[in-house]
Amino acid sequence: MTAFLDILSLALILAGAVLCLTAAIGLLRFRDVPSRLHAATKPQVLGFLLIALAVALSLRSWPVVAFLVPVVLIQLATAPLAAHIVGRQAYRNGTIDRPGLVVDDLDESRRTPPGSGG
């Protein structure tokens, strides 16, 4: 059973590393902000989760699991929030192709300056 868990943790670390690598390549290769945000959040977070699971399986210790659970939860909370903030700022800067948007929920807020009450 120990050998099986070691092989499983090795496979999870390899899969997580490949996902993190594809996220880094996507950040370099994609040209527009939404594509880069997708590459920065989705595969990177899944890769991190796989690596954290592999560490927990490899060390087989409850203190390690207790340490990894908040780290994973913080990662799950901050990655989408950071992507949302970056995407919103890119929209305000005009670096997002507005005609290419299917639904533009921020169009009304763009016409009304912040803090104007309208």
Summarize the model shown.
The chain is mainly alpha-helical and 118 residues long.
Give structural notes:
The chain has 118 residues and is mainly alpha-helical. The chain is elongated. The chain has helices spanning 2-29, 33-59, 62-93, 107-111. The chain has one domain. The protein is built from 4 helices and no strands. Helix content is 78%, strand content 0%.
Characteristic key phrases:
single chain, 118 residues, mainly alpha, elongated
List the helices and strands and how they pair.
Blueprint: H1 2-29, H2 33-59, H3 62-93, H4 107-111
Helix pairs in contact: 1-2, 2-3
Average pLDDT works out at: 88
Give, in order, the helices and strands.
HHHH
| Overall number of domains | 1
Regions with little confidence, pLDDT below 50 for 5+ residues: none
Distance between the termini: 64 Å
How many beta strands in the DSSP annotation?
A: 0
Oligomeric grouping of the chains? single chain
Number of helices: 4
Global geometry: elongated
How much helicity do the residues have? Answer: over 70%
- State the major sheet: none
Structural class: mainly alpha
Approximate strand percentage = under 5%
The whole-angstrom Rg is 19 Å
